[in-house]
Amino acid sequence: MPAGPFCKGIDHYQGVPLHLDHIDNLTIDGLTTTGAPCGSGAVMHATNATITNSKFANNGRPNVAYQWADGLTLLNCTSCTVEGNTFINNTDLGLVFGGGTNTMIRRNVFVQNVPVFANVAGPPDGDWTWAIVGRATVTGIFDAKMRDEAEAQ
Fold first, then answer.
1. What gap in Å lies between CA 125 and CA 148, rounded to an integer?
2. DSSP 4-45
């Protein structure tokens, strides 16, 4: 299947079903995104946001050029909580965390049965001051578990 015209261009976020830009005081609970052709299942730039009990699954198309997609892309999320979510078979990254001070990402599950670049990633120049990333379970073709005990008590 050929890629849609927006998947090859510079603005690949046109294929994103949910794009929240500069949102404050937002709670997302029980969201499901699936089938984004490229970019990401959801993209967010926020302050004081909470994403819980949500599922980001089957975004992107494996083995199709220009149709890779992340599950969730947090461009910057300051004072946010991302907890108790499930990321399943997203073709690029399960979760992208570009940075965000005082943000907690924990107790998320990553299930990957299609080849993927990585499951959690972010740029080295993002501001991660007081950010905590921990207690993720990763299963699937990698058959690995990651436990980070640096979680806030």
1. 22
2. PHHHHSS-GGGG-SEEEEEEEEEEEES-EEE--SSEEEEEEE
What does the pLDDT look like over 91-121, one tens digit per residue?
A: 888 888 888 888 888 888 888 765 554 445 5
Question: Which positions ≥6 away from 41 have C-beta within 8 Å?
Answer: 16, 17, 18, 33, 34, 56, 57, 59, 69, 70, 71, 72, 90
Look up the pTM and report it. Answer: 0.76
Q: Collapsing DSSP states into helix, strand and coil, what is residue 5?
A: helix
The pLDDT tens digits of the residues spanning 51-81 come to: 999 999 999 887 777 788 889 998 888 999 9
Structure token pair of residue 147: 């436990």
- Contact, 95 vs 105, CB < 8 A? yes
Cα distance between residue 151 and residue 1, in whole Å: 43
Gyration radius of the chain's alpha carbons: 15
Other Cβ atoms closer than 10 A to 45: 18
66/40 Cα distance (integer angstroms) = 12
Report whether 89 contacts 112 (CB < 8 A).
yes
Residue 26 backbone phi and psi in degrees, to 5: -115, 140
